[in-house]
Write a structure and sequence with these properties.
With about 160 residues, this protein is mostly helical. Helix content is about 75%, strand content about 0%. It has a two-stranded antiparallel ribbon. Helix 1 runs antiparallel to helix 2, helix 1 packs parallel to helix 3 and helix 2 packs across helix 6.
């Protein structure tokens, strides 16, 4: 059966929703005076949806990401949208490398690609929106990894089912 592109559509929508949330949800002040966005807790699911979208549409996931960034730029804060697209592009390149060269099963690629791309993506995004801090990167990365670990276990279970 042909692909429905459901994950690609969900990916574009999730990029827009996350960017809107980053634009409107207030930052929380961490001990030591640094800031963190609670929205970072849901970004991990966008990365996972991207992994599924990449399986579904291959390298066309890059134009899908750009579309999400363009719509975000219209609906959300332009600085957030630009930072998001730049961060997603860096993360996407790392994910592309994992998916292209690792040869690992899908579940392992989810975990490996997220482990590599989420701290880099977080660093780029937070630096570009002007709230970079090491605790902020750690919190954002941890939030993203929660989604990746959940989907890793779901995908691993599915891979173990008889064909």
């Amino acid at each position: 059966m042909k692909s429905t592109m459901i994950y690609a559509i969900l990916y574009v929508l999730s990029v827009v929703l996350v960017n809107l949330a980053f634009s409107f949800v207030p930052l929380l002040q961490l001990p030591g005076g640094e800031f963190w966005s609670p929205v970072s807790l849901i970004v991990g699911f966008t990365f996972v949806v991207r992994d599924y979208a990449q399986r579904e549409i291959g390298h066309w996931v890059l134009p899908a990401m750009l579309l999400g960034g363009l719509v975000s730029g219209i609906m959300a804060d332009a600085t957030v949208a630009i930072a998001s697209v730049c961060a997603f592009m860096v993360g996407e390149f790392l994910d592309w490398a994992v998916y292209t060269f690792s040869g690992k099963p899908f579940s392992q690629r989810i975990l490996l690609s997220s482990t590599l791309s989420t701290p880099v993506d977080s660093t780029v995004f937070l630096a570009m929106v002007g709230i970079f801090s090491v605790p902020g990167v750690l919190f954002m990365t941890a939030g993203k990894m929660v989604g990746a670990v959940i989907v890793y276990f779901l995908a691993r279970r599915r891979e173990a089912l008889p064909a």
